[in-house]
Amino acid sequence: MKKIVIFISLITTAGLFLSLFFVVRNVKQDNVEGIKSHNKNELRRILSEKELKVVVDYNSTNYFVYKGHPMGFQYELLKAFCNEKGLDLKISVNNNLEQSIEGLIEGEYDLIARNMTVTAERNREMEFAESWGLTRQVLVQRKPVKTASSGSGVINYISEQIQLGGQTVVVPEKSVYSQRLRSLSNEIGNPITVVEDSLNGPEQLIARVASGEIDYTVCDENIGRVLSRLYPSVDISIPISFNQKYAWAIKKDAPNWKSYLNEWINEFKKTSHYRIIYNKYFSDFSYQSFALNAYNTISGEQISDFDEIIKEIASYYQWDWRLIASVVMQESGFNADAESWMGAAGLMQLMPGTAEMYNVDDVKAPRENIRGGIEYLSWIDEIFQPLVPDRAERLKFVLASYNVGIGHVMDARKLAMKYNHDPSVWDGNVEFFVLNKSLPKYYSDPVVRWGYCRGKEPVNYVDKIIDRYQHYRNTLPGEPDVALAAN
Prior knowledge:
Elements: H1 2-40, H2 42-49, E1 51-56, E2 64-66, E3 69-71, H3 73-85, E4 88-93, H4 97-105, E5 111-117, H5 120-123, E6 127-128, E7 133-135, E8 137-142, E9 168-172, H6 176-188, E10 193-197, H7 202-211, E11 217-220, H8 221-230, E12 234-239, E13 244-250, H9 255-268, H10 272-282, H11 284-290, H12 307-316, H13 321-332, H14 352-357, H15 366-384, H16 391-404, H17 406-418, H18 426-435, H19 440-443, H20 456-475
Parallel strand pairs: 1-4, 1-5, 9-10
Antiparallel strand pairs: 2-3, 5-13, 6-13, 7-13, 8-11, 8-12
Helix pairs in contact: 10-11, 12-13, 12-15, 13-20, 15-16, 16-17, 16-20, 17-18
């Protein structure tokens, strides 16, 4: 009898185990199918949200700021795509490729835009759009140097791949370069010591080779060609891989999104616009015209001649200096002598009445002008604090008021309330009524005090300043991340 009970118990346990196994398997299968179904709707979601979230790497070819303007090969390709498709471009910066891939898979980004080579391993994690071209991995070393003591006339120069055996090569952490070097070690039968650097990307490592801090690194040839102009002592003549495609990356199982991208890329590559962008960053003359400029955030780490003044005064009034710099760029292009036909003058284009209100005696003196402009912004911010409690949202109201006057923005808030919109939200609410205050239906409304307004100008003004401000934040990450506006 005991044996029968044990036998029945074993059967029951086995049955429960099998049931759990199939439940878990079905749940996993349902999750996979759910993810695939979700990804198939990527294109629909992006078009409905009218926003493209992209992660790029920050370097002297793909993305940087030059004389106050965001620039870069990848940046301009992305802008061309978004402009044509009516999408807002939201750029994040991350030079860590592994983190960028994780962000793509988890839905933080819609696209990775960098010089990513297409490999079998990467194809298992993500999809690639049509390639922008071909590149290969090359060894980066210093050019041969003749010395009296070197005997052969060269020091540590590698003239063929097999000589890399026994050498130490520094590459970015968890990069495709480390994988290639380990494969090359096996191919030549002599170990190569691969040091993975967690702090520096290809560009920084090439600079370290040029300065003599390290002897060797590896990069993609198209990047090497550009940077070898910046560092003439660097040699990139030794390839260590075959040619590979480089392309934008998207999530797996998103066929509609991939087809949409591919159709645009194939057509855009045939245009003169694409050739202009390519030559701008990969021809000798164009690249050298801005690569070493002091106003390049890569080489000079500054936006303008007035950075230190802006930092000092913005800090005193508790504003993010990069936001003020974006306002200055929009108002005057960092020209302290700028004047408008309406009488506004100086870096922040103060009107005579505003300058008098804030005791700005010399409107073209940078320090006085910036102080007056920030004090005016702070005054506007104080007025809107009880009306728009959220600081990031309030910033849009403040900027619009700086451009077109508080009265017109207050009118738009009254119209928003009248037509059952949210008077404390800019996008699609107060923004709509500012934009349409040029129509008689709205500027003649009884709730409106200040009449006609050419609303497109302040709406574009807000968009441009906030967009540029984000680029400044992206390219100057070491600055303290203070409030968008005054507390």
